[in-house]
Amino acid sequence: xxxxxxxxxxxxxxxxxxxxxxxxxxxxxxxxxxxxxxxxxxxxxxxxxxxxxxxxxxxxxxxxxxxxxxxxxxxxxxxxxxxxxxxxxxxxxxxxxxxxxxxxxxxxxxxxxxxxxxxxxxxxxxxxxxxxxxxxxxxxxxxxxxxxxxxxxxxxxxxxxxxxxxxxxxxxxxxxxxxxxxxxxxxxxxxxxxxxxxxxxxxxxxxxxxxxxxxxxxxxxxxxxxxxxxxxxxxxxxxxxxxxxxxxxxxxxxxxxxxxxxxxxxxxxxxxxxxxxxxxxxxxxxxxxxxxxxxxxxxxxxxxxxxxxxxxxxxxxxxxxxxxxxxxxxxxxxxxxxxxxxxxxxxxxxxxxxxxxxxxxxxxxxxxxxxxxxxxxxxxxxxxxxxxxxxxxxxxxxxxxxxxxxxxxxxxxxxxxxxxxxxxxxxxxxxxxxxxxxxxxxxxxxxxxxxxxxxxxxxxxxxxxxxxxxxxxxxxxxxxxxxxxxxxxxxxxxxxxxxxxxxxxxxxxxxxxxxxxxxxxxxxxxxxxxxxxxxxxxxxxxxxxxxxxxxxxxxxxxxxxxxxxxxxxxxxxxxxxxxxxxxxxxxxxxxxxxxxxxxxxxxxxxxxxxxxxxxxxxxxxxxxxxxxxxxxxxxxxxxxxxxxxxxxxxxxxxxxxxxxxxxxxxxxxxxxxxxxxxxxxxxxxxxxxxxxxxxxxxxxxxxxxxxxxxxxxxxxxxxxxxxxxxxxxxxxxxxxxx
Length: 738
Ligand code: 9MR
Description:
- One of its GO terms (biological process) is cellulose catabolic process.
- Belongs to the glycosyl hydrolase 9 (cellulase E) family.
- Its EC number is 3.2.1.4.
- It catalyses: Endohydrolysis of (1->4)-beta-D-glucosidic linkages in cellulose, lichenin and cereal beta-D-glucans.
- It comes from Paractinoplanes brasiliensis.
- About 25% of the residues lie in helices and about 20% in strands.
- By secondary structure, the chain is α+β, with helices and mostly antiparallel strands.
- Among the domains are: about 30-170, Galactose-binding domain-like (Jelly Rolls), CATH 2.60.120.260; about 185-275, Immunoglobulins (Immunoglobulin-like); about 280-525, Glycosyltransferase, CATH 1.50.10.
- The strands form 7 sheets. Strands 1, 3, 4, 6, 9 and 11 form a 6-stranded antiparallel sheet that branches. Strands 13, 15, 16, 19, 20 and 21 form a 6-stranded mixed sheet that branches. A 5-stranded antiparallel sheet has the order 2-5-10-7-8, with no helix packed on it.
- A hairpin with a 2-residue loop joins strand 19 and strand 20 (about 265).
- It is globular and about 85 Å long.
- Bound molecules: ligand 9MR.
- The site of ligand 9MR has 12 residues, from loops.
């Protein structure tokens, strides 16, 4: 019996090809190819294959079949497999089989370690139907004589029948090369350019001299033309590119196309309307991320589900959660909040920046007050954005250590499953024990900053809550000052993300800034002024994220009315930061205001790009200058399709968009009964470190923008998170308000 629940922490490299995708053709067979599976054609009965979970493996028309019982929770609760397989590190293997399923269920086909810790070396989860051939290649990361080929077929509510034949694992095969389908070489914002905004496109071409271009309306009539501007080789993609500027066209319309160098772009609009919808969709994302409440099918057709982690089996619940062994001897009720991402963890550090950014959007963009989100609280007299964020704020407050306990006033860094779970797994079906992890200075300051910010923003709607939040913020801030170096370690990453944060001067600065802005008190302004962050250049390659929060404090000091001495310098620093991002953008032939050192694109790069745009938008508010507005709009083009992969990174926006973001419950790619992520969900985006095995199998050697793949297995390039949708919502709200 095997537990393949480890979806992370495993290194596999190589390339994989699904036959029939037309992406690449296997190379010629080499003489050294060796079959590792015994009796894969089932010509001599079913041995040495085995089945568990109460299933009997039996021959049926020359294939091996099992009747899979219904009502199991996990894929690995029912397995057909073969053990004692040799793997050699660095060697390429072709893994193939024919399989069928009586219902449209997925089989998790795994090559992995047959013994504890059950590492996964390669996995795919095709959705089965009539008999079909499946085939991939991968490179083994490990040498072992204890590998296993397994078909995990559990996790179905109803019984079904699984059959398999011609199971093969051949070593010594040539590696495959993955070629993404990038469509036409003319790259545009596939959604919409604003009528009065800048309009730029990028053409991928070998030509080095200017080429003619034409803009056609939806009837094919040419409405503008000109010549491209050769830009040489773009560092971020390695491509030779030209740019096109068609800003002079201002006529609203749908279905425009741009043609250059014999290629015609995907269609796009010239219109502002769609950004009002994007603003709403990006914010509606949060309701379906909620923990501790049933998602109402009537409010989100196709997304209804039972409440997760409310102490109903098989959940172990969030109502009475202990600490990890040795960490504390009390228990907390930490129900509620948003699930962080595609996992079921809830993290104060990341919840903090998400709350801050959404509340910041609310404070900066008055139009947001009236936006309805169709959530259970709608119509209660409080703006829906505040209703939604309150769901997370209440959770953050629950993570604070109660008075009378050691570290009272500090916040636990995070709470999540004891072990990683596999995909798919709806929140209410997660069987893992939940645990509180140690308190940390960073989490405590996240709580202080956001609770202080909430105190000034919610005052108008809920005085009692505002007072409670402010008291919690003061307590947290004092506790952090008393415990200034309780740092969350990188090693605490089993069952949930580490969110390790070794630098907390930024969090101190941010929390002091929010407390000062809300109370006006000298004790907090003194801490702001004496912080080394106050005079530092906080606008680096990426302005801010969950681990770097000084810019959040700086932006609010610059924009929320206050009487801090030296405000001119604070404001000037924001303008200088925006100028830096504009300069990067001008150099960039895809118009991206982000150029990380060594072309090393960060995990969640799309959110970093959007956060840089938030700084540019802040400069627009401070100065009123159009160039900043134009910088934001041009940056958005990258997110919505003007990029090397010709993809919109927002589900449901643009002709080709991300839709298989890594999530345990929007797992349609693995189980057709589940939905894709809701429209308006941002994918993490290019990440040159490609930490997950699937991305490694497809993208090893990728350059910058190419380090992304729209596959549910790619948690390092294609996850969805609460902190990434926040800047999308911020920017969409900004654009909608223009
Ligand atoms: O977004 C996070 C990224 O910046 C970190 O480098 C990475 C490793 O710690 O973790 C990312 O956050 C993940 C978190 O740890 C767990 N939930 C999913 C998050 C997005 O992948």
